[in-house]
Automatic annotation (TrEMBL):
Keywords, comma-separated and alphabetical: Hydrolase, Protease, Signal
GO biological process assignments: proteolysis
Species this protein is from: Solimonas marina
GO MF term set: peptidase activity
Name of the protein in its database record: Protease complex subunit PrcB family protein
UniProt KW Protease keyword: yes
Keyword Signal in annotation: yes
Amino acid sequence: MSKARNSAALIAGMLLLSACSTIGSLFGPDETIRVGEIGRSLQCGAQSADMSMQAFASADAVRAWQQTSGVELIRGDQSMQAGTYVLIQTGKRPTAGYGLVVAPEAPVYDRVVRLHATLFTPGADAMVAQVETSPCVLVRLPGPAWSGVALYDQSGKRRIQVKP
């Protein structure tokens, strides 16, 4: 083979390999991360019925929020790992029986973490306490800062997205 053909074959092979690595993320997540639940409460002090999500750069930022909100999700001197912390609130609800559970793993697409959650509501015929609630959960995302966090419900609908 001539030197030109060898070079052309080498370049073609490199292009094919780089295309495979690029196409791979088109068919699935860039990575999957572990999501750790840190704390939860049925009384997070929501002022509206709207779902909300807030990202914190550190456990110290969560502690500062706790001091102003009166909600304790990180208990006392509980040691915390580095990472991004995300507070998900369902909003103000008229009765008991509402809540959410976040899946322990989350796919990452283009540096946006996709949290998946199951949202609970009381059934139409459920006997529930007539007390106003505002459920929330605090989770930790490992690794570096993410460019965004999105929350999807059990039907696959994106409910909310934030940029940390």
